[in-house]
Automatic annotation (TrEMBL):
InterPro entries, per database record: HigB-1, RelE/ParE_toxin_dom_sf
Domain of life, per lineage: Bacteria
Pfam family, one: HigB-like_toxin
Protein name: Proteic killer suppression protein
Length: 92
């Protein structure tokens, strides 16, 4: 389940389906990732074929990432049974 968003445009897209504030072209993929994230009970549930799920290291340790396109990733932390601080970012 998604508990909170860092990226306001991503949160608005999740709530309304309107993609105007997203900075990526592949909105369909973003939608699939968010649906999977909302249904997940643990970070490992996102380790699906094609998602390129991975735990982040260094300064971003404690966060996870799923590939959207190019350098764009949906990143998130996990608290209890919720994904929190869900973000859309190019952290490379």
């Amino acid at each position: 389940m998604i508990g909170s968003f860092r990226h306001k445009g991503l949160g608005a897209f999740f709530a309304t389906g309107k993609a105007g504030r997203l900075s990526v072209q592949n909105v369909g993929r973003v939608s699939r990732i968010l649906r999977a994230l909302d249904a997940a009970e643990s970070p490992a549930d996102l380790d699906l074929p094609g998602f390129r799920f991975h735990a982040l290291k260094g300064e971003l340790s404690g966060r996870y990432a799923v590939s959207v396109s190019g350098n764009w990733r949906i990143t998130f932390a996990w608290s209890g049974q919720k994904a929190v601080e869900v973000d859309l970012e190019d952290y490379h």
